[in-house]
Amino acid sequence: MQSSTLPDSYSPAAVLRLLRRLPRRSAAAHQLHALLAKLGLLLHPVFLPARALLSRLPVASPSSLSLLLAAPPSVLSPSLFCPVIAAFSSSPVPSCSLVLFNHVSRLSLPTPLPAFPALLKSCARAFTLSSRAGAAAAFVAKGAELHCRVLKLGCLQDRYVRNAMVSMYGKFGHLDDSRRVFDEMPVKNAVSWNALVGAHGAAGDWQGAERVSHAMPARNISWWNNEIMRKARLGDMAEAERIFREMPDRDAMPWNSLISGYVKVGMHDRALDVFQEMQENGIEPTELTIVSTLGACAEMVDIEIGRRIHKYLESKGITADGYVGNALVDMYAKCGRLELARQVFDSMFIRDVTCWNAMIVGLSVHGHSHDALELFDSMKIEPDHVTFMGVLTACSYSGLLNEGRAYFKRMIEDYRIAPNVKHYGCMIDMLCRYGKAHEAYQMIKDMPVKASPVLWKMVLAACRVHGHINLANKALDELHQLMPADHDDVITMSNVYAEAKRWDDVEHLRTKVIGYSVSMHAARSHVYAR
After folding, report:
1. What is the pLDDT of residue 384?
2. 3-state secondary structure 171-226
3. Model pLDDT for residues 408-432, shown as the tens digit of each residue
4. DSSP labels for 449-505?
5. pTM score above 0.85
6. What single DSSP character describes residue 166?
7. Which residues, in sequence order, are CB contacts of 190 under 8 Å at separation 6+?
8. Taking Cα atoms as reference points, which of 203, 200, 202 lies closest to residue 213?
């Protein structure tokens, strides 16, 4: 559409005036970007420099990426695309950094030295986040390509590039390459040593990480923080906290490491205690603090602290996007506040598969099955195995047996996702709930993964409800091949016989198990009190 045919309110000059009144990194800039695209004004001479609009958009956003990918080569410059590459390297979708880098490389535009540490970090994080072997191999290859580019450009002596390379190869599991890059560094600083410690840790070589840590010539705040993280990864939270308490000075980093460590080992109440202590000490929370603490709130179903964090974000004008948005959606969904979860979800501009999963699973487990399936059908990205757990759970809770079968088939045939025992558990539960015990039995017998006792217990319980005596006997035999006789299983089988008025079989079963070691489990429950 030409500007001469536009109403005055949509003229380039009017839109530019509106753009200049928007605050930097404003969420409203996304709407303006969409309007410009709709009106065909993105390539109008007024907007060709792209800088005015780009500066108003959140850096790591789809709008920023699409704007740069659509911009003519004549207006692209490192000052425009390098900040976006750096921002995406720390976002939930680090591969977008590589997409943008590939684009500017095809245009033969120079990539300045400061962009390479972010690109190497993007390769490492994209590799870690990839769920498919083919994608992971592609990121390893991209990392090797970046190494070659750095060599060709003569940038390998740069300490920031080398540190990023040490870390990247460690995350790939290529410790020999990581060590070689480290050993060739003419001057090593504390960050270099910490990168090598982290590389050994990422590759699972904890003894090597310990050796490198003790060989460090100087111990600064990064060393203390890495020690806390290393102990936390090993699950030794007592030692992690001891190191934390011995630190001479503490900024947000060690607090984050301790909180996230407690979350990873499942000590969520202790994580919230440390967060509150952090606030009492006047330490400003970072994004990692917020994400870890919201994770603890989700597991503890502590809506009060979660709401307080959300209000803090709003008071600071921080957009709930990326990892923070994901954590908020997950927290609200697990606390049963689905309307708040959906508000955050709908307001987000970057939604990775983790975000979609949190919303779909939240809707499913709280009985909003049709909403969960509608949301799944509207997904703009490829689902993963967690997504299908939510979908199958939704089908099971709502009695959508045929739909469940269809989604299970799509998961295998369309998305090439191999079902695990949890997916089969959803299907078995669904079949047993709705009277298909024989089909459930056959599915367990045919599935390529090892059956768990829980699956056979489901079939046994379904046989009692639907009166399948012979099938119940088979299920009980299969169950006892996996575990010793259980008091509850014997009672269930006895009830199957009793409801069929087969009293001789009831007595025979009692005689058969008498004198055997039949385990009984005492009931118990727990509550968190804060």
Report:
1. 92
2. HHCCHHHHHHHHHCCCCCCHHHHHHHHHHHHHCCCHHHHHHHHHHCCCCCHHHHHH
3. 999 999 999 999 999 999 999 999 9
4. SPPPHHHHHHHHHHHHHHT-HHHHHHHHHHHHHHS--BHHHHHHHHHHHHHTT-HHH
5. no
6. H
7. 216, 218, 220, 222, 223
8. 200
